[in-house]
Specification:
alpha+beta; 3 domains; six-stranded antiparallel sheet; two-stranded parallel ribbon; about 35% helix; about 20% strand; globular
């Protein structure tokens, strides 16, 4: 699977010339790492037997598996595969551009269909060009759209952006916002679990899509969820958190993190930011899946 992102110069003055290419390459790399599981990438590259065995074990694990299952792209092992090209075009940057790209990519993968392929083994000696006299298998592609195969994008992560903004004066409303964020939250160790890559049930008011704020450890600082362009410019640091659905359903876990900006994050602020992103990502994925079911892209959920 290849991922590319093109940044139009109309989206931001920073995207003119070489700047747009650099930003596009960085966002494409982060998006590619979020879409494809690392186990699949490791298994496709030449590696020692021990490394291949570890990659296979990770791919079949029900506790850490996430991302697009690239095994569905294999037609003939070691010979023929489908190649997916995810091409993003950024026309406007109002903030959290990487989050918007990840959401669009997840929708595109869920809507994608692969033609059904049938592998027919050739008879021995049929292909005279083979040195060993054995015929090469033939690949037959069904052109019937109704026979196309869906890709399973349920475990493809979404990317949630959390920014830390440090104003000149400490705001008294930060503590109140943090208390509101954790209201009715039953997971006392949720932040530590998210930092360790665990998951749990979604609760409380964490999945706020209105730019909700929480108070990190740094005095006067605020954590902003889904920052706009102005808030990104004022942010000391940003975290782009890949959040994937838990295999057991009903929750989510942190699959990866990319940091942007030169500011350092306090460990407690980092753990809180990951938990905020995890809870928001779970709700965002549920809302997106509901939209795709309503549009007929996904099959209706079983009662």
């Amino acid at each position: 699977m290849s991922v590319s992102v093109a940044c139009s110069s109309t989206a931001s003055p920073e995207y003119k010339g070489r700047g747009g290419e650099d930003w596009g390459s960085e966002m494409a790399a982060a998006l590619s790492a979020a879409l494809a599981p690392p186990a699949a990438a490791s298994a496709s590259a030449p590696a020692a037997k021990a490394t291949a065995a570890a990659a296979a074990a990770a791919a079949t694990s029900t506790s850490t598996a996430w991302g697009l299952d690239t095994r569905a792209l294999c037609v003939l092992p070691g010979r023929t595969v489908w190649r997916l090209c995810v091409d993003g075009l950024l026309l406007n940057d109002g903030g959290a551009a990487l989050s918007a790209l990840a959401m669009a990519a997840r929708c595109a993968l869920a809507a994608a269909r692969l033609p059904r392929v049938t592998v027919v083994a050739a008879a021995e000696g049929e292909d005279a060009d083979d040195d060993d006299g054995d015929g090469e298998p033939e690949v037959e592609i069904d052109d019937d759209p109704a026979a196309a195969v869906r890709l399973d994008a349920a475990r493809v992560p979404l990317i949630v952006t959390v920014a830390e903004v440090r104003p000149r004066g400490a705001g008294g409303s930060a503590a109140a916002a943090a208390a509101e964020l954790d209201e009715d939250e039953n997971e006392q160790d949720g932040a530590a679990a998210a930092a360790a890559g665990g998951w749990g049930e979604l609760g409380g008011d964490g999945g706020r899509g209105d730019g909700g704020a929480a108070a990190p450890a740094t005095a006067g600082a605020r954590l902003l969820l889904d920052p706009d362009a102005g808030e990104e410019a004022a942010a000391a640091a940003q975290l782009h958190v890949a959040v994937a659905a838990a295999p057991t359903g009903g929750g989510a876990f942190v699959a990866g993190v990319t940091k942007e900006g030169g500011g350092a994050l306090h460990p407690s602020a980092l753990a809180e930011a990951l938990e905020v992103a995890r809870r928001a990502g779970a709700r965002l994925a549920a809302a997106q899946d509901a939209f795709l079911r309503e549009a007929g892209v996904l099959a209706p959920q079983a009662a």
